[in-house]
Amino acid sequence: MSGHLVLASGSPRRLTLLRDAGFDPEVRVPPVDETPLAGEDPSAMVQRLALAKLHSVVVAGETGLAADTAVVIDGEVLGKPHVPDRAEEMLRLLSGRTHEVVGGIAARHGGHDATGVVTTRVSFRELPDDEIRAYVTSGEPLDKAGGYAIQGGGGRFVTEVDGCLDNVVGLSLGAALELFTVLGVQVPDRPGGSSL
Of 20, 24, 41, 68, which residue is the catalytic one? Predict the structure, then answer.
């Protein structure tokens, strides 16, 4: 990519995905409250938060990218559990069922913004309580939306992924590259089709 890219995220997973795609972004952590608004649709929420993150650290004239991810089941948004009891609750809720991972992306370039939303369906096998407790004890789920990391220990719970796997990790690269293309950003060559 020509020029400088700002990643408006402290997520090491998003940074790794972008580096693997040939980018070398500068990381700026956005000071954004991720609390959902009352009655807010998950797709609207992740798009709002991605834009808020982008606007908080990427100034006009810069090229930047931000994302927000939510795990949704039965219409309920599962954020980051932060504490072990909540992580166990979330994993019990996801056990043996299919949920959606909704990812919002916002990009800025040349004084213009573009946004997108990607939805991936993820199915879990039945999770015994002792396995849930062991995973929560590892500490991995506490800062992950929905209480699991598909690229880490949570991957062994997954029986099927319908849609973009990168989106579940934290950033749909295909969708991000599409937004960059719309905005006129030069992007590295990468095989693969549309994700938006």
Answer: 68
